[in-house]
Amino acid sequence: MKKIYYLCACLAFLACSNLTAQTRPDAIYGDYAGYWVSSDNTATYATAQESNNLIGFTVGGKTYSTGVNDALLKSKVSVVTDENYVAFPTSFNTTSTATNFLIGIPRYLNGVIQDNTTRPSLSCNTSLGYYLRDGKNGLDLGSAVFNIPKQELQFYVNVLADINPDCINDAIPDIVVTQVGAPSSSFDVFKFTDANGVTVGVEKQVNFNSSSVTPLGKALWSFYYAGNCPHNYNSDGGFSGTTRDIRVLTFRLSDFGITTSNYKNAVKFVQVLSGDSDVAFGAYSTKSMVLYCLENGNATGTALDTKVGITSQGRAGEVNSNWPMVRKGGYLALESNQKAFVPTRVSTAGLANITNPVPGMTVYDTTENCIKVYVNANAGWKCFNKKTCP
Predict the structure, then answer these.
(1) Domain residue limits at 333
(2) Long-range CB pairs of 315-320, under 8 A, 24+ apart, other chains included
(3) 296: helix, strand or coil
(4) Are residues 225 and 345 in the same domain?
(5) Cα-flanking dihedrals φ and ψ of residue 44, to 5°?
(6) Do 211 and 94 contact (CB within 8 A), yes or no?
(7) pLDDT (tens digit, 9 = 90+) per residue, 14-32?
(8) Scanning 94, 107, 162, 243, which has its CA 20 to 30 A from the CA of 1?
(9) How many domains does the chain have?
(10) End-to-end CA distance of the chain, in Å?
(11) Tens digit of pLDDT for each residue in 29-50?
C-alpha cells in the first residue's frame, strides 16, 4: 500500500510546495550548564549562554540520542533510543561584505564574556564552514553563521549506494536541520539529486517563519562580521549580547520520496540557502547514510613547520632547502622520486581479521584495488575515492 500511495501521489507532490512532511521535535536536549532541555522559547526555559551541544530530541513521543553524550541523556530521560548524528561536512565560499552576514559564537566561553575587549576579532584561518560543524559531532547549537548568501551546499552521500535501504521506511529521523536567527519569509530547499543535479524523489521547501516551525529555545550570542578579515566584533546595538530563537526540524528519508527503488540514484544531498539562512548545523544519521567531505583545504594563513620527515633525496637538514620544515602544515613528510609508500595490503575477505578497527584506519584492498578507510561500525570499510576534509 505504501508504494501504491507514493506512485499515485507523486505528481501532486511535485506540483505543490510540499511543506508538511518535516517534523518539529517536541523537545530538544543539550549539555549547556550540565543539562538543558527546552520545548519552546518562553522565559520558563533557560537561555543557553555558552556552547550547547545537542544530545537528543523527542519526536512523536520517542526520545532519540545523538551520540554526543548518551549517558547524560539517559540519566535524565527514562526511555531513550540510541542513535548517532553527525554534522554535514559543510564548506561554502562567498565574497559578501554585507553587514548582516555574521558569525555567531556563544556570549560566554568558560564563564568569560566574548566581547570587544576579550575577543575583538576571530581569525580568518578558520573556515566559515567550521562554525557549521563544530562542537561534539558538529552539533553545537551555540555557534552559527547568519544570513549566509544564497547558494547551494552539496554533499556526496551515495557514491557506493551508501544510503541504508533498511532505514528508508522506519520512523526514525534521518536528517536534522537548524535555524537559529530571526527567519524571513524566504524558503530554504532541501533535496536529494542524481549525478546530473536532477531531483530524486521530491524536494522539501521550508519556511522557518511559518506557524509549523515554532521556536524550541533561545541562545545568547556574540556576533562577528563574516565578510571581513579578520572577523571583527559587531558592537552595533541589537546584535552582540542579544538572544535569538532556536528552531530545529527533522526529516526522514521517505519524506523526500526516497524509496528502495530509487535510493541508489540519490548521489547528493543538497541544501539551497535562501540568502537569509541562519545555520548552526545540518546533521545526518550515520546509521542511515555515509557522507563524503568535499571541502577544499584552507590555503590561507600561516602554516606550521613539518617537524618529522623521511627522504631518499639527501635533503634532510640542508640549510637552503630547510627540509622537512619547508613542507608546511604536515605532521609527517615522506619524499622520494624512486620509492613508493606501501600501506598494509589485505583482501576484502581479510578485512574481517582486523579486530576492533577504528575510524580513519587505512589499508589497500587487493580485491577491489583501492585504498580503503574504516568509517564506522555501520558503514564499515569504504574505498577512498573522494577527497576528504583537510
Answers:
(1) 309-383
(2) none
(3) coil
(4) no
(5) -75, -10
(6) no
(7) 333 344 468 999 999 999 9
(8) 162
(9) 2
(10) 46
(11) 999 999 999 998 887 788 999 9
The amino acid present at 211, given as its one-letter code, is: S
Q: In the structure grid, which three cell numbers stand for residue 114, read together?
A: 566574548
Give the bridge partners for 145, in sequence order: 103, 279
Q: Residue 63: CA atoms inside 13 Å, Cβ hemisphere, count?
A: 19
Mean pLDDT of 281-288: 93
Shared domain for 247 and 316, answered yes or no, is no
pLDDT single digits (tens) 317-347 = 666 668 888 877 777 888 887 778 888 999 9
Helix, strand, coil abundance in the chain, percent, nearest 5: 10, 30, 55
Residue 362 sits in the same domain as residue 222: no
299 located within any domain: no
Paired with 222 in beta bridges are 105
Shared domain for 314 and 278, answered yes or no, is no
Q: Which residues pair with 192 in a beta bridge?
A: 200, 269
Q: Say what the pLDDT of residue 20 is.
A: 47
Look up residue 114 and give its amino acid: Q
Claim to verify: residue 277 and residue 319 sit in the same structural domain = no
> Does 295 fall in a domain?
no
- Do 313 and 276 reside in the same domain of the chain? no
Q: Is residue 389 assigned to a domain?
A: no
